[in-house]
Each structure stands twice: as C-alpha cells, then as structure tokens.
Write a structure and sequence with these properties.
It is built from 17 helices and twelve strands. The protein is an alpha/beta fold. A six-stranded mixed β-sheet has the order 3-4-5-2-1-6. Helix 6 packs antiparallel against helix 7 and helix 6 runs antiparallel to helix 16.
C-alpha cells in the first residue's frame, strides 16, 4: 500500500504562517481526524485542529481530491501559525495518525509518477525554488511550464514518423509501397540532427543561467585585482595591501548583472615563485581562469611592459584587458597599450579602480553577460543530464543517416535516438537516475 506522507512546505523558523502538506490515500482521514469533517475540495476553510480533543491551532485547511492535486493523489494542506511549537505539535499529530515524514523531493516525485509533470518540469521545480535572479526565475518558470518537454516531444514525433517509414520498408517489402519509402525518412532525420546540433551548441547558456556566469580576475601580483573585486562587490571581500602576493587562494563573490547570476573570482597573482603556498595559489588561479566564461586580465598601466610579458602566452582572443591605475600614467601610455594589444583581439577597458571604482566596467560587464545568456529561443538543455541524452540522440541519428544500405540498422538507431530523447522527460529512465534528480530537493517539495 502507498504511504501517506507529510512535511512542512515552508522553511523552519519563526514566521506568521507555516504550511504543512499531506499526500496519499489516508489524507482525507487525517483531515477528518484533526478537523472533524472533510471540507469541499479546493476550498479554504477555517478550522480548529485538535488531537484527542485538545486544540492545537486555528488554521486554514485545504482538501484536494486526486487526481486534481499537485501530486495526483488525495492531498491536503494545513496553513497554521508559524511558531515552532505549533509546527512541532502538528507534525507530531500527523505522525501519531500513522503518516510518514516525506523524503526530500517526494511530493514532486509523486507528481512525476502520476503524470502531473515530466522529469524536466520536475527539475524546474527545484530550480525555481533555488532561483536567485530574474534570469534564473524566467528559465525555471519556462521549463516548469513544459517548454523543454514540448520541444523534446516534437522531436520525438519526427523520429516516430521516420521510424514508421523505415519499419514499413522492413516489415512489408512485398506490399505495394513507394520504392523510396525509406529514403523519405531522410529529410526529417537530417532536419532533426541539425536542430539537435544547435541545441548542443547552446547547452552552456542554460547551465550558465542556472549556475552563474564565471568571471575570473587574473594577472600579475599587485595589479589591482582585489581592489577591482571589492569595487564590483561593493564590499571588502578581499584584503588589499601594497605587498604583492597578498591573495593566495581564489576568492569568489556572487553578483547579479542584468538579472543574471555571475560569479566573480579574485585569483592569486600569476608569477614564478619558490613559495609552496603561493605556488599552489597560482596553480588554482590558472585552473579557475581556464574554466571561466570570461577572463579579465588586470594590468598595472605603469608596469605593463613587464607584467604583460609574463602571461602573454596564455591570453586568448575574447579575453578582456583591464588597464588599471591609469591615474598614475599619462593618457599616451594607455593609448600605446591599446595599440600594442590590438592584434590580440582583446576587449580593452582603462580605469583606476582605486579612484573611479567599478563604474567604468560594470555597465560593460552587464552588457556582456546579458548578451551571452539571453537568447531568442529557450535553452534546449539546462543540465548535464539533458546534454548527455541529446548527445546520444545525435550520435544515433548520425549513424542512421550513414546506414543508407541497411534499413533495419537505420530503424534500430532511430528507435534508440527516440529512447534517448524520452529519457530527458522521464518517459523511460532507470530508478537510480530518478533518485539522483529528486534527492537534491528540499523536504516538503
């Protein structure tokens, strides 16, 4: 028999209201036991909650008769006063009735199992709860509304149509079918492969919106990286001294730029050193910078000819060159630096972080992040799991298109491509994958 589960749906702590959710076959009995009767479905009523005749609280009670509920089961909500004692008393009363405390994500898992959400939508529930920025909210809400599922279903329909043509050629060779029936599947498969190619190229955007656009401040010691970090963070996140090499480890600061999450990192100054601790800091700086979405090389305008030569070999086109301490040099020096670096394909920003703060660079950074993370179409993948399944589907399609002389093999690969897409939305997926997806949720969701 299916357990009836319960859990607080609101965060622990002192609050005006706390919501406690119940789902499962005994939900109605629990409502009757605590209130004396079962209210009309989907209508909030004020009731006194009692356990063995003792009043626990006055609360709003909602009863949802399955399948018209979040989980698809009979369910209920108790909106009680948010004091810790009230919540603990309610949880104790539900436990005494034989209900079980829900595991993390169990309510949403039941919604998935009852067909109320596909797996991509279920993942979006967690993303929406965790959303900290407008960009994250929009992406999660679009995914929760079924945007990804509809796209994958449309692709799967194309595969089903192609598979029908291929299987007809295999199963009914003697029937009066068009001679090119198998060949007619090819244009649809080629179109789908091209669309998946675009989707795979766009994978990083969806993940960056979720996890944050990574920006690394790199360069030689004492170039002003920590000063710039503090200016952008608008707080003293990093220690600033005149002693080179003050920063030994990566210091990460979250920012919101244009409604998108960004992660800004101050790194150890890159130079050769015999100090083991500083050398480890330099190694970590290089690793973080290599994985960053944007690298900002901060250089001292007055020492550029020395500092630039130390990291010239690892600068790449698209990096930013932040010429700092411009208040200490003549304008001609900055102009010369721009001229010397023109062939490197760098975006050059000149400023004095100490005198001007972050204003000269914040607007440019915001424009860059918005351009990188916004898009005309909804991202086709927001998690590594999605990208892996899309990659599988593409590989099977590529193989099917190459198997022009063996229709049976082509049909099998099209079938496998369809299964790969189905696993994204959870139409078919092993239990361990579902465990990983829902274990990241909070209790009560």
């Amino acid at each position: 028999m299916v357990d009836t589960i319960y859990a607080p749906a609101t965060a622990a702590g002192r609050a005006a209201v706390a919501v406690i959710r119940v789902s499962g076959p005994a939900s109605g009995e629990a409502v009757r036991a605590l209130t004396g009767n079962l209210p009309k479905p989907r209508q909030a009523v004020l009731r006194t909650l009692r356990q063995d005749g003792v009043a626990l609280d006055d609360a709003l009670v909602l009863w949802f008769q399955g399948p018209a509920s979040y989980t698809g089961e009979d369910a209920a909500e108790f909106h009680v006063h948010g004091g810790r004692a009230v919540v603990e008393a309610m949880l104790g009363a539900l436990s005494a009735l034989g209900l079980r405390l829900a595991e993390p994500g169990e309510f949403t898992r039941r919604a998935f199992q009852h067909g109320k959400l596909d797996l991509a939508q279920a993942e979006a529930v967690g993303d929406l709860i965790d959303a900290e920025t407008e960009g994250q909210r929009k992406q999660a809400l679009g995914q929760l509304g079924g945007a990804l599922g509809r796209r994958y279903d449309a692709w799967r329909d194309l595969l089903v149509q192609a598979l029908a043509m291929l299987e007809a050629a295999v199963d009914f060779p003697d029937e009066e079918l068009p001679e090119d029936v198998a060949a007619r599947a090819r244009p649809g498969l080629e179109t789908l492969k091209a669309e998946i190619d675009v989707a795979l190229a766009d994978v990083a955007r969806g993940r960056r919106v979720r996890d944050g656009f990574r920006i690394a401040l790199v360069g030689a010691p004492n170039a002003g990286k920590s000063t710039l970090l503090n200016a952008l963070a608008e707080r003293d996140a990093a220690i600033v001294t005149a002693t080179p090499g003050t920063t030994r480890d990566v210091i990460e600061v979250p920012l919101v730029l244009g409604g998108y999450k960004a992660l800004l990192a101050d790194t150890a100054g890159i130079r050769e050193t015999a100090d083991d601790i500083e050398a480890e800091g330099v190694r970590r700086a290089r690793v973080w910078a290599e994985e960053a979405d944007l690298r900002m090389w901060v250089v001292d305008a007055g020492e550029f000819h020395v500092k630039h030569s130390e990291h010239h070999a690892i600068v790449r086109a698209g990096d930013w060159l932040v010429v700092n301490k411009t208040d200490l040099v003549e304008p001609a020096v900055v102009a010369a630096i721009r001229e010397q670096t023109a062939e490197l394909g760098l975006h050059v920003v000149a400023l004095s972080a100490r005198e001007q703060g972050a204003d000269p660079i914040r607007a440019a950074l915001t424009d860059h992040v918005v351009q990188a993370l916004s898009g005309a179409e909804f991202p086709a993948a927001t998690r590594i799991r999605h990208a892996e399944r899309l990659g599988e589907a593409r590989a099977y399609l590529e193989r099917a298109l190459a198997e022009v002389d063996d229709v049976e093999l082509a049909a099998e690969d099209v079938r496998l491509a369809s299964r790969a897409l189905s696993r994204i939305t959870g139409r078919i997926d092993p239990e361990d994958v579902l465990d990983r997806v829902f274990s990241s949720f909070c209790i009560g969701k």
